[in-house]
Design goal:
Blueprint (H helix, E strand, L loop, with lengths): L1 H18 L25 H29 L5
């Protein structure tokens, strides 16, 4: 039973290596016509704000549940 699993894992690893061996596509026709400019940066502001808000909400929920459980048990503080 171990041999088929091992063969499957080795086959998947080797096939994934072949996917990275391809050459990149050629640049578009107008590339370099106005000079090589740096690419525009990815906007991370909107996603970062949402991620921070979700993290704060999750932390608040965990703190609320911990305090609620501690009060239920009769201890004084968390």
């Amino acid at each position: 039973m171990k041999t088929p699993k091992l063969l499957l894992i080795v086959a998947l690893l080797l096939s994934s290596m072949a996917l990275y061996a391809n050459d990149p596509p050629p640049p578009p026709a107008g590339h370099g016509a106005t000079g090589n400019q740096a690419p525009a940066g990815a906007p991370i502001d909107g996603g970062l704000g949402i991620l921070l808000a979700m993290g704060a909400a999750y932390g608040g929920m965990k703190l609320y549940k911990a305090r609620k459980a501690a009060n239920k048990e009769g201890s004084v503080g968390v």
